What does this fold into?
Amino acid sequence: MDQDGFTQLEALAQHWFPGSDLSEETMARALWMEKECWQRMQKAVANGVARAFSGRRKR
It folds into this structure.
């Protein structure tokens, strides 16, 4: 796959909104969703690591 920005945005739009028309708005929403997803993943991993090394068990 070509690694230019537009092609990546098209791929993200198809990933998040399969079957929808490719438009600037769709690509912008897909980019926002991708960034939001990875930010949430980062927080979840950080919380999991913190819990694992805190020495406390959840009851």
